[in-house]
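During the no-cost extension, the postdoctoral fellow (Dr. R.K.) reprocessed legacy sequence entries with the updated structure-token encoder. One reprocessed record is reproduced below for audit purposes.
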Amino acid sequence: MSHVSFNSKKSIPLQMILIVPFVVQIAGAVGLVGYLSLKNGQKAVNELADRLLHKTATIVNQNLDSYLSVPPKIIHMNADAIQMGILDVTQKDKVGQYFWNQMQAYDLSYIGYGLTTGEGAGAARYDGKTTVIDEWTAQLPNNNRTYATDAFGNRTQLIELSDYDLLNQSWYLDPLKAGKPIWSQIYIWDNPITPFISLSAGRPIYDSNQTLLGMTGADIHLLKLSDFLAQSNPSQNGFIFIVERNGLLIAISDSTKPYKQVDGLTKRIAATEVSNPVIQNISKQIQASYPDGFNSIKETTRLEFISAQKKYFVYLTPWVEENGLDWIVAISIPEQEFMAKINANNRTTALLCLGAVMVAIVLGILTSRWIAYPLQKLNRASQAMAEGNLEQSVETSPILEVQALSRSFNTMAEQLKNSFLALQQTNVDLEHRVEERTLDLKNTLEELQRTQEQIVQSEKMSSLGQLVAGVAHEINNPVNFIHGNISHLDTYTQDLIKILQLYQSLYSNPHPEIEAVSEEIELDFIVEDLPKMLSSIKIGTERIRTIVLSLRNFARMDESPVKDVDLHEGIDNTLMLLAHRFKTNTELTPPIQVIKEYGSLPYVECYAGQVNQVFMNVLSNAIDAVEERYQFQVEKGLIPEPGIITIKTQLTPNEMVNISILDNGNGVNKYLLNQLFNPFFTTKPIGKGTGLGLSISYSIIQKHGGNISVESEVDKGTKIIILIPHKIKIDTIN
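Re-encoded structure tokens follow.
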């Protein structure tokens, strides 16, 4: 055995090796963490401020878009109604009540119109709560009458007479001069209780011949923007305010008013004149930093200003509206609100770092002793074995790894084998999960495709309704022209025949040439057939007018989406459009008798066009079923039975309208009844049905809060039962 010698001068104690690097690493890591924490805290403040300011600006801009989109929509709707003849501007009482109803639906301060004659009418909330109706003539004085109203918009009493010169009002003149929809300048109503800061949207109005009638306008109350800004303010010590490009204040998030009283009159103030020192200081610094003040802000800008020895983050966002509004939204938040907690956290972090270093030193000493003791014993045993004493062993050790080193490897090998087996099983389980998820995604995709097809079919039906209404409108004018002139043509023809007969009676021996021409053109036949021909033409035009009226009523394109309708009228219009299918056109087409058993029904609030679509789908399916059975009987040599379709309506005790449509067609097997309302399922031959009619009808009735069901028996017919609520609340019907 050779002896190994160690140089004690170069050796380092194990405790020092364990303690010093451990403490140095802990101290360095803690110091670095503290430094990075400070830097990251400052960076996080800037990022958090940017996100918070951007989110707040987005919320404010969205509210401005929503709140200020109402007046342009209202005046556009009213201008279209006037041009289409729905609103008659000469009937001021009806128009005033119409505006009153709009005031109940929208948060506006005024809706009205003015004519080029100087007359007009409108509805207003002068006190911010009660809606009144104004009506004025062109003749001063006392030409403006203000009426109080009841809960239904009816005028109750005349409450005020005043002078009103419409032709000198800017809200009337500006839209006419511009010739397009515009916003007025912001103006103030001097109300005895609370002044109104208002903004008016106006646009010219025309009749159906594009003749200028005047203009219509709608006013909105801007002080309510201050309430929203107060709710949207993310900071207790921060502020949000909105200014025009000229610096005049529009709204502010605190209790400061954007106006002041001067000589008994209310005047708007600039942002640099407000009593709030922070907003005043920030506005002045913006005016000083940019040569053209707020006009220089062309895009979203983030600034930092010092006010009262406090640092503020300021976010300036332009808000531009298509009809001419151009404002600046300013949001300011003090940096201290972000840094207060971060500074406190930094102090806490420093104390924790110092404590961590002290604890690390103590733990390092204890740990080094705990680790070094069994290693020293193992070292002495190893040295003994190196010197040739092979009987050495370490019986006890606080470290199990040293005592069971040989067994650890076997245990590790066994654990590794088990780990591989577990990993393999995990892979198998993962594959099964992937297959299940893939199947779920496939089913979801198929459901999405069915839904998409349903939506496409619904849009096609909507487009068909628009096409039907358009065609009906275009046909209506020439047919009315022809029908209106037939009576005159009939009168003229009768008069000519009377003259001709008078000539024949007075001149019984006509000239031979006249007699020859009379025989050639069969004059006697013409005199006899012409009145019949005119009568046939008149009947034909009456038929066309009836069909056109049915088309327009069926499409319902000229009416409001939701209204009270007579369902009997919708059924009759649908039957009119399908009338050609009730007649025998070929030997394979049966005559179909329609039996109406109508009960007493109230008007139903619904989407008339979509409910008519349901009637069309159900009645078309009933006709198809009757025709299929008739054709089957003819082909088999049987005596075919005529078709019968029975339509029954009644009001159930629970205020549901029951509409049942029964046919004597082939019927449907009971095991197929549950599938009839599934998309793309059809019992018709290939090419004769898409399988979407009943599915779309089911969706429409369900969204109306009703139900549709089927009762059928083979060779006896099918009964479709539709239940619709008398009064329903419709959230969304696509």
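Confidence is low (pLDDT under 50) at residues 1-8, 405-414, 556-560. Residues 563-725 form a domain with the Heat Shock Protein 90 fold (CATH 3.30.565.10). The remaining legacy entries will be reprocessed before the final report is submitted.
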